[in-house]
Amino acid sequence: MIILLPRSGGVTVDFGRSTVEGMPGQMLLINNHEAERFVVTGEPHLSDVLRINWSVIEQAVSALLEIPMNGSLELAHTVNLSTQPGNLIGHLVETIAIGMRDNGPLLHYPIAMSHLAQTLADLLIRLVSHRFSARLDNNIPMIAPRSIRRAIDYMQFNIDRPITMQNVAHAAGVSLRALENGFRTFRQTTPAAYLRTIRLRAVREDLLDPFNQQSVSEVCLKWGFFHFGRFSATYRAVYGENPSETKNSARRGSPRPLII
Predict the structure, then answer these.
(1) Which one of 101, 176, 219, 230 has the largest count of C-beta atoms within 10 Å of its C-beta?
(2) What is the SS3 assignment for 40?
(3) Is the pTM of this model over 0.70?
């Protein structure tokens, strides 16, 4: 995700059917894989630009909602810096940008950088409108039983293997029926759907890596997808594009200003 803080001039971002304009006093939040064109306006143009890995955003959503994130986040594109949330997030973005600029001190302290990135992602998810905002407001924290956590750990460790739900239940130390009921109660999904979601996310992260030389089929096999036609349909339904389109987009790449 690209975060833009225009200082002078403006920025116009095209998303196909919609256009977003940013001016001084606003912050733009852009999923770089959804944007089609950036146009700067006004002279001289000056903006602070920060780029944060999208996986950090997904992890923040998953941590707050306790479920893997599927599909687009639909995060609001503009934030008014004069509001309390905008002021708070804007100051944190400025702090990070200053700490990274010109071989700044943050570049030499990766642990501090990681903490700041996680804090920024957490604030964005909590304070900026998105597809899960209503669910987040109504979410009542529930401590999942150890069996569910053991099941999730087993899935994470074996997502590239052809495991069955019976395998998961055995690893969690419960019956298959108890596993199903536990996931429906504490994760609002089924164990099979949960496994499919984390596998899809792992595939997408590999496809978005411009340095990954594996083919789409090799990535699918790596993460346990053996039926390519069925996988492509599921992937397209979740992410709105074919796996090959994701990989081609990553190959083309884009400018990377300050990257967390």
Answers:
(1) 219
(2) strand
(3) no
